[in-house]
Amino acid sequence: SSVAESRARAAEQLATGEMSRRCAGCASLTAVAVLLAGAGPASLLPVPPPSVAQQATSLTGSSARLQDRHARGKAASLAALPGPLAAPLAALPPFFSRLAAKFQSYLSMSRASGYLSWWGAVGLISLALAIVWLCSTPQKRRFARGKLVGTGALTPLLRRLTPKRLDQIELPGGVVDVTDSVMGYRLFVPRLYNWCKSMGMKRGQILPSIGFCSDENQGYPTILILKHFGTYPFNHGYIGGILALDRHGPHASHGEDMVIFCAPHVGYDTVSKRFGSYRRIQVAKPENQVSTCCGKIAGVLEPYKVRYEATLERIKVKLVSKDQVHVSLGDSIILDSAKGTGVALHYDRLLGKGGVENPLYLESTSKVFLASEEFAANVREVLASESSLLEADEAAGLIEEDFPVELPGKAKRLSWRSLSEPFLRQLFTRDVFHFQTPPLLGEENRLERQLVPHMPDILKGPWDPELVAAVICCQAEFGRTVHSVEYEKAYEGKNLVVVSGVNVDICPKAEDARAFPSTSFLPWAAYVQLADGTRRVFEQEEFVNELLEHSEENIDAIDIERGVLELFDRPNKVRFFEKK
């Protein structure tokens, strides 16, 4: 009946000239769409088109009004939504809230002006229904998200057992949002340039500096920085994305306004959906083209990966009874801990009373201990969750015939289980172990010094270790850089912006040998220090919002190819030595 009332009102307005024929059809389709979304009949009344005078007033509005609308954007747009839709949309992350608000604004304008065709309305309604369908199937949504972010072939059970959200990386240095923050460099750099100009930086006086790794696939970001900032960037970086802080002085003396990019990098393979590898198309043999990226980070992680996996193999747990859990430790683990090398276990968190000096009994290459109350409770919880979830997935038909893990019946739950098994890896957390290393001195070991304390978080998943390591390096280098520039006299009286994030190098496909390297940017934080003494740190959400508030169109961008051609067309030749 509500749809019929809306169609009747639209027909009346069409007859009186208040609404165009195209807008009347759009209003009818929109009524159906709003009903499907759960809105009430009050929201179904079509909006009459604005008069010529109203349009003129709108187009000639003052800049103050535009700025006010810009500042109140999300709240105003959400307030205009039907009541049942406003509350859930207000709870969405900033990116999706802005998207929903823009969609509602565009739909309302199109309904009023008649710009939206029948096919356009059908397309928008289909898109809305598709989103509703995805949101109503959490199993499919989790699976899609897991593949997108590079978790590989995670099963539904493993994903539910994973305590972390797969769209965020929770680290001691802060929670990093991934899915709502990554943007391509072709969008990131012009937005950053426009943001810098909005803070008083002047065209032609901004000198960027890059703290990138030496890899050849960092050329694309560098070219885009040249294009939008109008000058080739100063070099602040070492291999691995470590910044050379002793170069602040020379950098500051070469320009009036300064921007420092702090960005280690990681490769992303679109075929395997994994982070940490990249296809080098300049390598002749196809089977040798895919290699580690970043190679420096991968080289640091490799020995720790080997030790980690070997340790997981040598630690076993057994549910002896309802109240007791036994832990078997290989002799090599105990010896390494005593020698101060490799993996050191926190026996007070892992073992019960008496610790490593009080085994229950000895085996040929291992010792068996009573688990601590805390660790035993964790083991029982994981085993119980594994059993119930697998049985539920089997009953629902979610487990395929070639599922790699046998269903854990009672006999299996009461047998020795290695922590290397997928379901039990989560028991080996930073609370029960850390890595021991000899002193790591000098700048050449700075990256390893940064990563070793966080190695348990890097290796345990669900994220690929190379990505987590790059994020940790980014966080550490940002803090180190901000602390150094605050006390650097060369930057006093100048405008300075330090931006931090991770460059994600998209791996080209094997069949596209001529593909130009593509890179996206995962922002982390930004530091602003203005000539008037203003200083502020923008955390990730604030930093991303600032970038999204600025246009990706840069009117000051240069034509690199044209500029190079002009060099060859110059008639004057420079002679360095005059002939006698």
Q: Mind explaining what this structure looks like?
A:
- With 580 residues, the chain is α+β, with helices and mostly antiparallel strands.
- Helices cover 45% and strands 16% of the residues.
- The protein contains 23 helices and 20 strands.
- The strands form five sheets. Strands 3, 4, 5, 6, 7, 8, 18, 19 and 20 form a nine-stranded mixed beta sheet that branches. It has a five-stranded antiparallel beta sheet with strand order 14-15-12-11-16. Strands 1-2 form a two-stranded antiparallel sheet.
- α5 packs across α7.
- About 18% of the residues have low confidence.
List keywords for this structure.
580 residues; alpha+beta; 5-stranded antiparallel beta sheet; 20 strands; 16% strand; globular
Instruction: Report strand %.
Output: 15-25%
Which regions are unreliable across 5 or more consecutive residues at pLDDT < 50? 18-22, 31-74, 76-85, 135-165, 399-410
Provide the residue-averaged pLDDT.
75
Shape: globular
Question: Termini separation (Å)?
Answer: 100 Å
Percent helix: 40-55%
How many individual β-strands?
20
SS-based class: alpha+beta
SS summary, helix count = 23
Using only C-alpha atoms, the radius of gyration works out to 30 Å
Tell me which oligomeric state these chains represent.
single chain
Write the layout of secondary structure elements.
Blueprint: H1 2-16, H2 21-36, H3 52-59, H4 63-71, H5 73-79, H6 83-90, H7 94-113, H8 118-135, H9 138-148, H10 156-161, E1 168-171, E2 174-177, E3 183-184, H11 185-198, E4 206-211, H12 219-229, E5 234-235, H13 248-252, E6 257-262, E7 265-269, E8 274-275, E9 277-279, E10 290-292, H14 295-314, E11 315-319, E12 325-330, H15 331-339, E13 342-345, H16 347-350, E14 361-362, E15 366-370, H17 373-395, H18 410-413, E16 417-418, E17 433-436, H19 446-451, H20 455-459, H21 465-486, E18 495-506, E19 518-529, E20 535-538, H22 540-548, H23 560-569
Parallel strand pairs: 4-5, 4-6, 6-18, 7-18
Antiparallel strand pairs: 1-2, 3-19, 7-8, 9-10, 11-12, 11-16, 12-15, 13-17, 14-15, 18-19, 19-20
Helix pairs in contact: 1-2, 2-7, 2-8, 5-7, 11-12
